[in-house]
Design a protein that fits this description.
InterPro entries: 3-IsopropMal_deHydase_ssu (IPR004431), Aconitase/3IPM_dehydase_swvl (IPR015928), AconitaseA/IPMdHydase_ssu_swvl (IPR000573), IPMI_Swivel (IPR033940), LeuD (IPR050075). One of its GO terms (biological process) is L-leucine biosynthetic process. There is one protein chain. This protein is an alpha/beta fold. It folds into two domains: 166 residues, Alpha-Beta Barrel (Aconitase, domain 4); 31 residues, no CATH class. The protein contains nine helices and seven strands. It has a seven-stranded mixed sheet. Strand 3, helix 4 and strand 4 form a beta-alpha-beta unit. The two termini are 34 Å apart.
Length: 202
């Protein structure tokens, strides 16, 4: 998993509430177990017309938002089913940080497992950043200091220490396990030496 420390990028404004995981990545694209290749279908039903052509009024189809790495969204972002494909699609597009007043719990947790920083801020602060994003301003995120800035305003956000540590060091569930590889190997060797019959019976 790619580490997250600081990010300064164009933020795309998406002032919609209750954006569910089916809107983020529709069900017809869930046949893959690969984490790559989903970015082109991110927000497919509101990003493209029925004939596959881009909707020119959708934010990610407009400059400078085509290369956005930050998304400023409405409350209850990521509601609906628990599909992990939703953060996969965001990440594959290039989104590393989502800012909203609230998130669905499962989506919120899945973001951390995939290297995306979900930031919860009060509605008033989200509104300020939404306007900055609509004006095409860059937003800077500093995870170490837990701050966000649009160049004028500076906001702080909360994050659990364990999740912060994992993001800064790029540790997903597999990475956390590999951190203990030496201890696991030592335990296996000790087990084979002390109780070899266990492995033989297996």
């Amino acid at each position: 998993m790619k580490a997250f420390t600081k990010l300064k990028a164009v933020a795309a404004p998406l002032p919609l509430i209750n954006v569910d995981t089916d809107m983020i990545i529709p069900k017809q694209f869930l046949t893959t177990i690969e984490r790559t290749g989903l970015g082109k279908n991110l927000f497919n039903d509101i990003r493209y017309r029925d004939d596959g052509q881009e909707r020119p009024d959708f934010v990610l189809n407009r400059s400078p938002y085509r290369t956005s790495e930050i998304l400023v969204a409405g409350e209850n972002f990521g509601c609906g089913s628990s599909r992990e494909h939703a953060p996969w699609a965001l990440l594959d597009f290039g989104i590393r940080c989502v800012i909203a007043a609230s998130f669905a719990d499962i989506f919120y947790n899945n973001c951390f497992k995939n290297g995306i920083l979900p930031v919860i801020l009060p509605h008033t602060q989200v509104d300020v950043l939404m306007k900055s994003a609509e004006a095409g301003k860059m937003i800077e995120v500093d995870l170490s200091t837990q701050t966000l800035s649009d160049g004028v305003n500076i906001f702080t956000f909360e994050i659990g220490e364990f999740r912060k540590l994992c993001l800064i060091n790029g540790l997903d569930d597999i990475g956390l396990t590999l951190e203990k590889e030496k201890a696991i190997t030592a335990h296996e060797q000790s087990l084979m030496a002390d109780k070899p019959w266990i492995l033989k019976s297996a």
